[in-house]
Design goal:
Strand content: 25-35%
Structural class: mainly beta
Order of helices and strands: EEEEEEEEEEHEEEEEEE
Shape: globular
Helix content: under 10%
Number of strands: 17
Radius of gyration: 19 Å
Strand order of the largest sheet: 2-12-9-5-8-3
Length: 216
């Protein structure tokens, strides 16, 4: 998992949606993987059929071997039917994932069998609803946005990157006061400020590099 969200953040639990699971194809194989299963990915709804049951038991190889006769059925893995995936350019995201979605830990052991470690790693299992922040103030590292930090100006609008699904790009149309973010097509937030973290003396900064503070 790449660290996309830095510690400074402000949001309310009432602005977090806990209804959608990440699309199966985007789930990380392990918590050390990088991709749309990271925390800090901007996501859009890909399956919003509320006629289906919220959770159904399905066949999922993640559960392991279910071919033994005494098990009765292979459809035993609970999975949320409503789905999200990394947003593409031109889309307005539902919000940003706060947890990663992964199958295994850094040692290749299934998190399914270690719920304590799953909680400590702030990870959701395949098919579990991932918390999605729809409003608030967040700090993104340079792993969470495309382009140099110089492309982001105070007050500029945020849009989904055309380079990497789930990441953001700045909006030159509103740079340095040239227009209002609400006038930019596909915008869903604005930049509050930018900065850079550097090493202090001999101590290495875990979150070294450029960052931006955004408001959704």
């Amino acid at each position: 998992m790449s660290i996309r969200i830095l510690p400074f953040r402000q949001y309310s639990d009432t602005d977090v949606v806990n209804l959608y699971a990440l699309a199966d194809a985007s789930v990380l194989e392990s918590t050390t993987g990088v991709g749309a299963g990271d925390a800090g990915v901007f996501v859009s709804i890909t399956d919003g059929n509320w006629n289906n049951d919220p959770v159904t038991y399905q066949t999922n190889t993640y559960l392991g071997d279910t071919s033994f006769p005494f098990l009765g059925t292979a459809s035993m893995y609970p999975e949320v039917n409503l789905k999200v995936n990394a947003s593409n350019a031109g889309e307005t995201p539902l919000g940003m994932t706060l947890f990663q979605t992964a199958k295994n830990d850094e040692n290749g052991e299934k998190l399914l069998y270690n719920p304590q470690k799953q909680t400590e790693l702030q990870a959701m299992l395949p098919g579990q609803a991932v918390p999605i922040a729809t409003k608030g103030v967040f700090t993104l590292s340079n792993s969470g946005f495309d382009g140099p930090v110089s492309d982001y100006y105070v007050g500029s609008a945020l849009r989904v990157s055309s380079v990497t699904p789930g990441k953001i790009t700045g909006s030159a149309a509103t740079a340095r006061g040239h227009g209002h973010p609400h006038n930019v097509s596909g915008h869903f937030g604005m930049v509050l400020g930018t900065g850079v973290r550097t090493n202090q003396g001999p101590t290495s900064d875990q979150f070294l590099g450029d960052y931006i503070v955004i408001k959704l």
